[in-house]
## 1
Amino acid sequence: QVQVVQSGGGSVQPGGSLRLSCTISGDVASVVAMGWFRQGAGSEREGLAIISRASGATSYAGTVEGRFTISRDNVKNTVYLQMDGLQPPDTNMYYCATTPLTHSIDPMYYNFWGQGTQVTVSS
């Protein structure tokens, strides 16, 4: 079992920045990758950015590449999502998750999820 606890998020004006954090505990050694996803009501969950726990290799969805940056601190067992240049379409619930399987941005591979955090971008 892996416990996933998120923090951060909130409201920001267009063009602003926010940073999300996600700390894991439990069977941390089983985690291959950690990722950030978002999902709105009635929408499918969208993979945004993932990072390999061992190598630090990253992958991004085209919708956020160049604006969002994922990073990790393995000492703190924490992964971060720095979000810059936020725009109203980025408004959504954001989730952190872990996978023991593979370096993939497909949410189907992720089995432990955080509680979600709201990000709202409006003027």
## 2
Amino acid sequence: QLQLQESGGGSVQTGGSLRLSCVLGGYTSPNYYLGWFRQAPDNEREGVALIASDGTTKYADSVKGRFTISLDGAKSTLYLQMDDMKFEDTGVYSCAVEVAPVYSGDYYLATGEMHYWGKGTLVTISS
């Protein structure tokens, strides 16, 4: 069973930047999707960004051009670089992994049907 631990959350002003980290431990697979999801106040959980084992990435329209997902394989750490942050980016951010994907990356980003999840880290935005 995989262990995922997020860090890097905090409070930033609009227009500011923040980088989240997710340390991955346990079983690994040659095929996977790693993703970031967020739960905003009064909203359902939303897929933010996804990276596949072949290096391809996908982003929610609301963050495209502002957020960057990346993976440091040597450190077993997933990152989410968030720039030009907006108030609407507020929420609890969780990392997740699907170790044996059956469907496309679009499916997992849209549904959040990932097998393993971290506990989440809180991100708040102020004016």
## 3
Amino acid sequence: HVQLVESGGGSVQAGGSLRLSCGASGNTASVTYMAWFRQVPGKGREGVAALDSGGSNPIYADFVKGRFTISQDNAKNTLYLRMDSLQPDDTAVYYCSATGYGDRWEGWNHFGYWGQGTQVTVS
């Protein structure tokens, strides 16, 4: 099992920036990809960005449009999401997630470990 805890959310004006953090613990050696998802109430979660365990293959959703950067610090077992040029449409609960599905990118549908979420509000 893998435990994930997000932090760093908050309120920001349009055009501002935030950096989210996700601390991972448990059986982290089994993780092949980690990712950030987001969810608006009443809608399903959508993938935002993902990163392989080696940190060499970042994946971004089209709607990020170059504004977000995913990174990790393996020594601290921490995943980050730097969000720049935030817009009101980015308002959501952001979730950290992880999968041990495989060592290749296979899409957003196989992430099974989830953090509790952190609220991001852009106005």
